[in-house]
Amino acid sequence: MSTVSSPVRGTVSRATATPAPAPPRRGPGRGLRVTPWLFLVAPLGLLVLFTYVPVANMVWYSFTSWDGMAPVKEPVGLDNYVRIFTDPDMFTVFLVSLYYLAGAFLQLALALYFATILSFNTRFRNLFKGIIFFPYLINGVAIGLVFLFFLRPGGTLDAVLGLVGVTAPPQWLGNPDLVNVSLAGTSVWRYMGLNFVLFLGAIQSIPNELYEAADLDGATSWQKFRYIIAPGIKQVIGLTTILAISGSLAVFEIPWIMTGGANGSTTFVIQTVQQAFEFKKFGLASAMAVVLLLIVLLVTWIQRRIIPDEKVDLT
Amino acid sequence: MATRHLIPGVAAAAAAALLLSACGGSAEPGDAPDDATPSGEITVITQRTDIVDTVFAGYKEQFEAEYPDVSVRFEALTDYEGEIAVRMNTTDYGDVLLIPASVTKDQYENFFEPLGSVDEMGQTYRLVEEAAYEGQVYGVSITVNTQGLVYNKKVWEAAGITDLPATPDEFLEDLQAIADNTDAVPYYTNYSDGWPLSQWDGNRGVMGDPDYQNTHIAHSDDPWAPDQWHGISDGLLYDVVANGLSEDDPTTTNWEESKTLLGSGQVGTMLLGSWAITQMQQAAEDAGGSADDIGYMPFPHQVDGAFHAQVAGDYKNAINVNSEHKAAARAWIEWFAEESGYAYDEGGISPLLDGPTPETLGDFDATGVEYVEMNPAPAGQEAYETDVVNTAEIDLYGNIYRQKLVDIARGAADGDKESYFADLNQRWADARATVGD
User: Fold this and answer.
1) Which residues of A touch B191 (CB under 8 A)?
2) A151 touches chain B (CB under 8 A)
3) Does residue A120 sit in the same domain as residue A63?
4) Residue at A281 is within a domain
5) Which residues of B fall within a CB distance of 8 Å from A148?
6) Nearest Cα to Cα of residue B406 among B123, B157, B190
7) Strand partners, B246
8) Are the beta carbons of A270 and A250 closer than 8 angstroms?
9) Does residue A228 share a domain with residue A139?
10) Coil vs helix vs strand at A100
11) Which fold has domain B2-141+315-359?
């Protein structure tokens, strides 16, 4: 299993490599044609070494029945892919991702809501910003453990519910109908801060005159959001949506730490890890990782077709 | 200076070849090693993150006093199996390491240095066959465990139980008595941590047949039939959970906490290897009780009127085949088995044939339990069961399918005992057909 780097990259400013038409004054040792490439050797080398070579390796493994240790990697053609697309057990785990997808949209909505509110002059706004962003700074393993104690029977959540009169709370992780909701909720708690900061940054880059003009015209808060903020941060919304979708397809950390995939909380990535490390099917696991990569790329492509990447002009 | 010890070293090696003397053979018997005198810095990889800086530091001191040319460095891995498997893709995986469960026997020679023949090593050590391939031994157990159930005597007595259960049904009745008469949870699955569930598989010796796994399990199309080991053991686990005799919410169990629960009598029973006894006694003392509260009983199943318990080696020390200090690494392995006292301190049976038996197993012994050393698979068949396991994707040595079993038993997943066992049998038989005999 290899990590899939985010397929979305911000537009990188063009490298200022070759200067515009220069007078024919090329002295020796200055302005050689290869000079820009020399500067690029290090970053490109690292990129190839640590991103493309491992991915190429993974693709190669996916066509073998390698067990992760044997010196020989037996090619098996498309067998691993056939298995993934014909075995219903392989794909039903994506249903679990739907919980996280629903959670992700809730998370985006909440983040957008708080970002909008806190971009206006709210009392204690810096305190609230800190509180909302704080969970993202905590290590994922720590969050898993904290929520394990929070959600266990007789744990913090049950104690709080007991104070308001709920005497028979459900088993938040033990109930198979609730376990994924609880885990997705934990995930929302953790990642909302990141979305919030992205939205807040984008909203604050909208020029202040626009709000002033809107105020003069008597616009309500909702109208300001609908006609100024929303179009102004369209690109960031698009980006976070892709990240949310690919994130919910590739959920791993929180369910792995909290339940280990037991009780029907197995996600696609957990299943990949189990195939690789429990059943020694590195070939199959690599194929699963490749499939996940392709699905994420596909989702990105669809999203780009629906929301084209155009320059927004608010004026 | 110290290299002058070459001749005594060779003499010791010769003695070792005959019968490994207590003073410690220092070189490889048989074919000449690269460097005959133990010297250099060796890296010893261990899974005992809890005692690496305390007990192991003491070992290092004693060992270095005996072998002044050798310096020992420890590396303790938290997730031993996971981390070592990755490192073994390189040549840098220490000088002495524990053979990970994921390496199949036919892969041993790629990773580990052979220590000697089965006949030769078998004169000194127990269970050498467990880490042997084609007559060569690759590892020496750090300690030897037996298998059974650790229980809180006070809880069982409070429930009015006087004799140990001899059948699964009696066991269920006893647990029911605990549920009815005490506040304790009769059985704790440790579902969430997972690995305690895999302990169920280590009890195959209960069937009383050293060749059981060479004639059944991977050689059977229905290991989950009611009269076969997995049918009996997994069936018992299912019934315990289905009758509500285990903890309410298995998904939030916690291993460290379970020790306190058992020690303090909030939990009655757990199925664990004998290695757990000392830890439970410690927990009982920490909880204000006494080490005597902790008892150990054989698995409730008798063959020909007697209990049987499997003895099996724990992790095995082995030498990295790429090591540059093989003599030193070997000296460490022998010293560890013979002189460190690790097995005794851990409440385990000694890896030496004539080693001391731990006090912790006194009561267990008194039940007349017969210890069963399982015979290894015959030559050429060593990897067969693992292949079937991996093909069937039924992790006998893991927790995934047993967690599903617990989920079904407590009504959190579809199916019942019959349907799940039928499914397991079917997948097993299909995998056997795929792997071939």
Assistant:
1) 262
2) yes
3) no
4) no
5) 252
6) B190
7) B187
8) no
9) yes
10) helix
11) D-Maltodextrin-Binding Protein; domain 2 (3.40.190)
Rounded Cα distance, B434 and B428, in Å: 10
CA distances from B225 to B170, B217, B399, B419 (A): 20, 10, 20, 12
Tell the residue number behind the tokens 């290897």, with chain if given: B273
**Tens of pLDDT along A4-21?**
444 444 444 444 444 445
Tens of pLDDT, residues A237-254: 888 888 888 889 889 999
In A, minimum Cα distance to B83 occurs at A277
DSSP B112: B
With tokens 């509500």, the residue in question is B244
Nearest C-alpha neighbor of B270 from the set B374, B148, B131, B408: B148
Residues in chain A: 315
| DSSP H helical ranges for B199-316 | 212-215, 229-242, 255-263, 276-286
Q: pLDDT, tens digit, for every residue of B58-105?
A: 999 999 999 999 999 999 998 898 889 889 989 999 999 999 988 888
Q: What gap in Å lies between CA A148 and CA A178, rounded to an integer? A: 14
**What token pair was written down for B309?**
């318990």
Residues in contact with B369: Cβ distance below 8 Å, sequence separation at least 6, in sequence order:
B148, B298, B306, B307, B308, B309
Domain B146-311+377-435 coded CATH 3.40.190.10: yes
Of A153, A274, A280, the CB nearest to B252: A153
Q: What is the residue type of A134?
A: F
Does the model's pTM come out above 0.95?
no
| Angle between helices B276-286 and B255-263 in degrees, nearest 10 | 60
Distance from CA of B254 to the nearest CA of A (A): 10
As a whole number, mean pLDDT of residues B365-375 equals 86
Residue tagged 């056997």 (tokens): B432
